[in-house]
Amino acid sequence: MLLKSSYQKSLGLILGFILLILLMCGSLVFGYTDTNLKTVYDAFAHFNGSNEHIIVYDVRLPRALIGAVVGASLALAGAIMQALTKNPLASPSVFGINAGAGFFIVVAVSVFYVNSYQAYIWIAFAGAAFSAFIVYFIGSFGREGLTPMKLTLAGAAMAALFSSLTQGLLVVNEAALDQVLFWLAGSIQGRKLEGLYMVLPYVLPAIILSMILSQKINVLTMGEDVAKGLGQRTGVVKLTGALLVIVLGGGAVAVAGPIAFIGIVIPHFARFLVGNDYRWILPFSTFLGGSLLVFADILARYIVMPEEVPVGVMTAFIGTPFFIYIARRGFGK
């Protein structure tokens, strides 16, 4: 634990918020079109319809806001999943929640020709919930019951299954392929604020409720018997946590597609900073998750300029070595 006192943790949380704001400002400035802080200021204070102002206002602003919200949602979902399952690899991507939500959206697009943001949100929630239920059900089989290793294997299997089904659907429907291919890679490029406005009424209350639930999560991590002995209704806490994960993960997929590894990397980094107290882990994960995704999106603009790499590719590049490290340490290898 790097930050020991409440004062240090509070200061660290403020610095995390400032880092997120600075990166969002950087997202407004940096890119293929040359702009600076004065251009950004003028785009908001004295919009004149120039190409630079349009890019700042209509292209980069949505990317900065969506990146912050999606990154925060994925990191928060991962932190809650790791607490509830006691699994260091738990995240929406590893447990197949992202893949399930993505598969449901691809079915809606390719089979039912759905093209509404509002519909995407509810379809993503349904896919995330279905995937979570299946993974929990499969992971509970056997004499030992639910274990971290079985959950991980079940999640990996369902993620592979949904990904394969998604690819199969796209092979037979080229029109749908053109519509969702870039989205499936995980990207916030070209996203409109309309999608964010539609998902915020679900995601924002989920973020707030997660913070309220943090103390109960602390008690639950002490062990189910201890939590019950302290009067906690553990079933209600677990169900609430699962619903929050579905809303946060499904909402993120609906807006930006399936983006991996943020839900794994950030909760561990937050735990390194503040220890095992989820009253601190969850807010730190929120700011750091948003910061990581916005930072990865800025990098994605420069890798193959003037083209752009989907931000999901960048987060995978950043997160894969960390995933291997956590997998080896978490399962005692």
Automatic annotation (TrEMBL):
The keyword GTP-binding does not apply. The keyword rRNA-binding does not apply. Pfam families: FecCD (PF01032). The chain crosses the membrane at residues 12-32, 64-81, 93-113, 119-139, 151-175, 195-213, 242-266, 278-300, 309-327. It is a multi-pass membrane protein. It is found in: Cell membrane. Keywords: Cell membrane, Membrane, Transmembrane, Transmembrane helix, Transport. Belongs to the binding-protein-dependent transport system permease family. FecCD subfamily. This is FecCD family ABC transporter permease. The lineage of its organism: Bacteria, Bacillati, Bacillota, Bacilli, Bacillales.
